[in-house]
Every structure is written in C-alpha cells, then in structure tokens.
Amino acid sequence: MLLLLLLAYISLGLAREVLTVFVSVVLHELAHTVVASRLSVRVTEVELFPFGGQAKTEDFVAVNPENEVCIALAGPCTSLLLAGLAWLAVRWGGPQLFFLIKANLALGLFNLLPVLPLDGGRVLRAVLSLKWGWRKATVNVATLGQLAGGLLCGYGGYLLLYSEQGANFFFLGLFLWWAARLEAKLLTYGFVRYLVNKKGQLARKGMLPAYHLVAVSSTRLKDVIHAVSPATYTVVVLINDEERIEGYLTEGELIEAWFEKGPSASLGDVVRG
C-alpha cells in the first residue's frame, strides 16, 4: 500500500520530494536502530510508514521503559537535527533545501505526538507502564492513536469536499488508525508467541536448562525480568526474612505480571495476585 502511494506521487512529477521524504524516513529509523544497538536491544526488522516507521525488537522483554524512551526519542531528535542542519546550509544549498527542512520538521514533530505507534506514544506508554503495566498502557495509548487517525481522516475528508487539498491528511490518518489498531493486537500476539515457543521447546526436548533466582518479596519485577532468556527457563524462588520459601514464580508468571502490573511491582504483590 505504501509503495502504491509512493508510485502515485512519483507519477505526478514529485520524484524529488518523494526521494527526500524516503531518505529522511530511513535516517529517522536508522537512528532508532543505532540507539537500540547501543543499548544491546536487537532490531529484527524495520517497517516504513508515510509518517515514519517502526523498528521491531527481538523480544518485548528486551526493552525496559528507560530503554524504550531513549530508542523512541532517537528518531525525532535526528529528524529535527537534520532540519536544523539544512536550515544552516540554506545559504550554500539554495531554496531547494526548504523542502528538506519542512519534511524533517514535520517528521520529527508529528512523531512526538503522544499516540501509538508514533515515537511520542512509545514514550508515553513507557511512562504509563510503570503504574498501569505494559498491556493496559499499550491499549490506552493505541486507542489514542486510533482516535487521532480517525480525526485526521475526518479532517482530510472535510477538505476534499471543498478542495483538492485533503488527500494527504486522509491517507495519513488512515495509516495512523491502521497502525495503532495493529499495535494493540500485536502486543498480545507477541506475548502468546513467546510462551508458546518456550512450551514447544519443552515439549520437543523434554527438558530445558533452568536459571534459578532467589529473591525476597520486596524485590521489584524490573530487577529480575531481564534474567528471562530464550536459552533457559527462569524460575524465581521467593523467600522471607527467615529464609523460608514463600513461593515460586515461573517465567510465564513473570512476563504476565510485567504486562499486567508493570515493572515496578514487587514479587510479593505478584505472588499474592
């Protein structure tokens, strides 16, 4: 769909503008990938949209809220930096740089809107997940994204009724609504896929190497969640002040609590439900 949209603009004689936007989006997403790599988060693929893109990580447990904020802000900061550099170079490059400035300003500022799947929405989700948990934060911020997409579609449709200037807003809103809807759906899918994969490994091999942790009930979930690894099965043994066992938490329970209660929840709260 994106390719068809780009070809349509090229057929209208806008090849230079399309190339400028495409390169700007690629650099925007490259910034996400570079920062993710610096934080030891592996990016498996990058999807490109008219308003930016999405760098998909290897695992949802690989990204904690602090890391996601840094990765999310890398793209808009790069776009705004490019706009600033192009503005400084106008005296040498001429007026053709004005479109580069406008494109990167629009890309950077639009992606700072606090709705998923935009970068600003990822920052908001990371902040809200500390209190609400990952799943609830994602659903709510993705709902804002669908609402924003619907409003853009409506605005674009209104302009199309009275002029020929609303197509961009309409298609942008459509992409935003679709991507926000997909964001909420893929959250549950990723969680289920991870658990099914581990269960499949256990069924095929009959056993898995285990990684045991001993922790007290006041330990925060975020302090143990990064022990979860694709190569081992993590089990947490919860003990009290007298060093007596209070309970056990399996890897599946840890990840589910990460989604439902957030990374700041204590292990004691998770055990008590």
UniProtKB/TrEMBL annotation:
GO molecular function: metal ion binding; metallopeptidase activity
Topology with respect to the bilayer: Multi-pass membrane protein
Domain Peptidase M50: 19-90, 97-129
Gene Ontology terms: cellular component: membrane
Annotated keywords: Hydrolase, Membrane, Metal-binding, Metalloprotease, Protease, Transmembrane, Transmembrane helix, Zinc
Cofactor field: Zn(2+)
InterPro entries: Peptidase_M50
Major site of localization recorded for this protein: membrane
GO terms for biological process, alphabetical: proteolysis
Top-level taxon of origin: Bacteria
Compartments where located: Membrane
Transmembrane segments: 71-90, 97-117, 137-162, 169-192
Family membership: Belongs to the peptidase M50B family.
Record's protein name: Peptidase M50
